[in-house]
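re: that complex we talked abt at group meeting.

here r the seqs, copy pasted straight from the sheet so there may be weird spacing, ignore it
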Amino acid sequence: AQSVAQPEDQVNVAEGNPLTVKCTYSVSGNPYLFWYVQYPNRGLQFLLKYITGDNLVKGSYGFEAEFNKSQTSFHLKKPSALVSDSALYFCAVRAGGRRALTFGSGTRLQVQP
Amino acid sequence: NAGVTQTPKFQVLKTGQSMTLQCAQDMNHNSMYWYRQDPGMGLRLIYYSASEGTTDKGEVPNGYNVSRLNKREFSLRLESAAPSQTSVYFCASSDGTQETQYFGPGTRLLVL
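got the structure back, here u go
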């Protein structure tokens, strides 16, 4: 079975400060890891993914994530938060042999001006 | 290029009524998915279709049926709606070589 944990329901950060949204996973075999963002009343938008290769992955809107195999983590980061980054963020995982994604419960990011 | 489209956007049903949620993608993707999103639970997979002509159960398939009508379209049917099926439903598609799933705007369903 595969699973994802997002330990924080909400993360609050001041505009201009760095942000981190945490994600840990459990999967058999090599993981494919994804981050998605959801704005109010919208579908999920793809941010970035790790399939293989460099552990630091860069994605849309200045976001990046670091794959850490020993800690089974894939934390989302951004050096300088914007108010417009406020949204719901989902981490997702799937094992290499499967197509279906398993999502975490989501973390609400609130960036204060 | 519209991506993934879903109809309707919003629906209210009475317990026991049936309805079909429609999904279409114009990206020539092989795989399509149906998820439901409930507060505090993330997205849970209902059914998916790895390719035209195949469908498989996901995590929460009970009370639902699906049809992969052709490569573009993947519908989700509720035969006898229950209040527990009140949720937001998302359709997604992916290309097996790229792996990324692309999502539609969602259907908000309320079952009274």
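couple things i noticed - Chain A has a mean pLDDT of 92. The interface with chain B takes residues 4, 9, 32, 34, 36, 41-46, 49, 51, 90, 99-106 of chain A (CB under 8 Å).
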